[in-house]
Amino acid sequence: MDIDWNFVKNFSPDEFPENPNKYADVKTIYALQTIRNVLKKPIYPSPEDGALARFDAENESSQHYCDPSQEIYSKACDWFTEAWPDETFICLISLRSKYIFNAFGIYLDTYLYGKHWPMFHTDTRTLDGLPLMWFRDEGQYYYIQDRRDFSLLITVLKEATFIHVNKNQ
Ligand SMILES: [Zn+2]
User: Which of 43, 58, 61, 74 could form a disulfide with 53 if both were Cys (CB 3.0 to 4.6 A apart)?
Assistant: First the structure.
């Protein structure tokens, strides 16, 4: 199935580091537009190589992995937004479903055009159980859905907000 860009009003193929028409699962791009529709704030796909699709064998287990010869297309995209991290989180937790996207991560150790700026990852993997939700700081991954209390999540959102506020200073 091809991406119908009439349904993807806020993005164009050349905004992505890899060509989405060739390398992305359609759901990956539609998920991004759905998030954009709800968030109503600009979303910027990360310009880093591999932020949409990755081709090397060491990324074979990644949701970004793509091998068109096997009809495997990227299920994941990494992106930045002008929206506040807490409103973005609430948007993601409310949209998360098997129909739109199933997993997301918040990254505190990322930069866009030299500015320290929290990044989000969304992917449309197939999941039966709980959504997958994690954050990454200094290269270390922490899985939030395994925890019974919200203290870690609140700490992450506070830190992400602090970074977001300071990125323009
Ligand atoms: Zn990612």
Answer: 74
10-35 CB burial, b ≥16 within 10 A, e <16: ebeeeebbbebeebbbbbbbbbbbbb
Distance in Å, CA 78 to ligand 1 centroid: 5
Report how far ligand 1's centroid is from the alpha carbon of 122 (Å): 7
Compute, in degrees rounded to 10, the torsion defined by CA atoms 109, 114, 116, 117.
-90
160 C-alpha to ligand 1 centroid (Å): 17
- What pLDDT is attached to residue 149? 78
Distance 106 CA to ligand 1 centre (A): 10
The angle at the Cα of 54, spanning 52 to 55, to the nearest 5 degrees, equals 145
- The confidence score (pLDDT) of residue 98 equals 83
pLDDT given at position 24: 98
DSSP codes joined into one string, 123-166 = E----SSSPEEEEEETTEEEEGGG-SSSHHHHHHHHHHHHHHHH
